[in-house]
Amino acid sequence: MNTGQAKGLLPGGGGENLLFLTDDQLRKGIEAMFFAYRDFTADPDRILENHAYGRAHHRALHFIQRSPGTTVNNLLAILGVTKQSLNRVLRGLIEDGMVESRVGRRDKRERHLHLTEKGAALERMLADVQRARMRAAYRAAGPAAVAGFRQVLEAMMDPERRALYHGIREGGA
Amino acid sequence: MNTGQAKGLLPGGGGENLLFLTDDQLRKGIEAMFFAYRDFTADPDRILENHAYGRAHHRALHFIQRSPGTTVNNLLAILGVTKQSLNRVLRGLIEDGMVESRVGRRDKRERHLHLTEKGAALERMLADVQRARMRAAYRAAGPAAVAGFRQVLEAMMDPERRALYHGIREGGA
DNA sequence: TTGGAAAGTCAACAAGGCTGACTTAAAATC
DNA sequence: GATTTTAAGTCAGCCTTGTTGACTTTCCAA
């Protein structure tokens, strides 16, 4: 790699300034992702510690809240982990009375996942602190910056993941 | 939480449109971070597998490349892990001839870290694929979006981390 | 009736975090 | 000069969360 693009201006190009594509700018973006992601997860992590849960539990709670009645297979696709890995997490949440697993009505092989009152309360706590940080960042940066933020993140996703990102719905038996 | 802000428009406010601060918009941002970060790390991860290394090794290589001659303590602060955790990773990289650890000239307690030729080559491979994804995303989104992307990520960082993000330099001897 | 899909389980393993305790060497301070 | 502090490194043990592989149960659908 290290294509000519890194130089900034394309000599005969359309005249657009391509300085934002230099290796240095790209590196700053990469480091920003690394640093920001750490702090992005830090607030929920602190709450999870008190409950003997980890980030994996948070993710499960989030997407069950987001799509109540979602099936295990569905969740598997969203989270991108193995059945065994998800099952361990889910088992804990169900045992602790955070998540309810209901046998499907149409297809009895499926299990539809729902948050209990208790689970919804925990999810709300986690979402609140994470949204608080996000809201502060959004407010500080302003609407135009937020639009750009979302655009770049979306462009960074693989096409299949982008489809997931847009099309989380299903569930609901 | 769930302050009135989530409603969108402040009735008596300055007239600015605050729809970008709704809980729904914030949730989309949170999910975008989750999905994008996965794919952001996926390309280097594939390369690392072939070398029996993990993400932790990548991070070490990146920041040593970025600040040649940096000390262990310095790297510790940047990565935000324990000495024991970093040491395990660093030991592997040194044994494999990827990283060189030189006793400090001024302060002989310090060890200054440098990439070897071999280490630099691996780091270049990792950086190349990660930059390629970043470049494609930047190009697709355009310079204005990129500026917003960086602004929001920076606003998401804790102040101390933001200082680190800006002020990685030191090292050098 | 049979094949395949959805879910769940057991076992074993690895990466990469963590804590706590302790050593060595060298610098800094009293 | 003696003492304290700092930088680095090490050993041991633990946890979470990911992995593979093998196997079962249930049930839908061809």
CATH architecture of the largest domain in chain A: Orthogonal Bundle
Specify the structural class of chain A: mainly alpha
Give the N-terminus to C-terminus distance of chain A in angstroms.
49 Å
How many domains would you count in the coordinates of chain A? 2
The portion of residues forming beta strands of chain A comes to 5-15%
Largest interface: A-B, 64 and 64 residues
The SSE order of chain A reads: HHEHHEEHHH
Continuous helix count of chain A: 7
Measured on Cα atoms, how large is the radius of gyration of chain A?
20 Å
Report the average pLDDT across residues of chain A: 90
Largest sheet of chain A: 3 strands, antiparallel
Shape of chain A: globular
User: In the CATH hierarchy, what is the class of the largest domain in chain A?
Assistant: Mainly Alpha
Counting copies of identical and different chains, the oligomeric state is: homodimer
Question: What is the topology, as strand order, of the major beta sheet of chain A?
Answer: 1-3-2
Helicity level of chain A, as a percent range?
A: 55-70%
Low-confidence stretches of chain A: 1-10, 169-173
